[in-house]
Predict the 3D structure of the following.
Amino acid sequence: MKRKLKTKKKLVCNHKARRLFHIWKTKHRIAERRRLAFIAMQNEE
């Protein structure tokens, strides 16, 4: 029983970490796109 609880806790931690990583990845991608758009705008001027 104790062992089962431990693995469940580990899974929850894993899920949280994965979600955080996904959020960070999406934020990073948005920032990258914004930066590229900014550079393109400067080049047009």
Q: What stands out?
A: The helical segments are 2-44.
